[in-house]
Amino acid sequence: MPTLSLYFGLDFADEDWRGLTYQLDCPGGKRGGEWILGRAPTSDLRISIRNVSRRHAAIAYSYAADRWSIQDLGSSEGTFLNGRLLPPGDLQPLKIGDRFYLADNLLNVVEDEQDTVGGDSGPPTIASTEPLDYRPVEPPAPTPAPAPPRTYADTAFYAVQWLFSGSTVLGKVYRVVMLAGATAFVVALVDLAQR
Fold this sequence. Notes:
Blueprint: E1 3-8, E2 21-25, E3 33-38, E4 45-46, E5 57-62, E6 67-72, E7 79-81, E8 84-85, E9 92-94, E10 99-102, E11 105-110, H1 152-163, H2 169-194
Parallel strand pairs: 3-4
Antiparallel strand pairs: 1-2, 1-11, 3-5, 5-6, 6-9, 7-8, 7-10, 10-11
């Protein structure tokens, strides 16, 4: 039966979990299992810390992939795996030695109850109790606006696309009237220019 042990360090903010190792046991069968971590009373691992969201993150085991994974559930303070911010809904593999933060609250993935990450055991490593330096991920730059049409065919295509994109019948009628008026105006200008 697949198991995963989580160690809540001695400086964990929720006193109910501080210094404990909690073992997740996946049920038998092909279905796997999922555990919700958060402040909500219905969470599988209820963590009573203000900056932990009600449904902060989920840890799951998949028999098909034969691995444990973690994903952020759209938390307000973020979930960080080994110092990297997880985008909401992005399923990432979870293995022994990994460290993850719910907001700024550290949990360690350990082999068993004896494998707690305690006192100073040498230089900082991925399994040390010192938080890794992390920088918030900046949002991606906005996508640039599409280039203006370059030919009359492009212009006609965009006009027809705009014409049929109205969400109501009245909106489509309004757009047909606007397009007819604009066409009449252009024809009048061309006629004046030829005189």
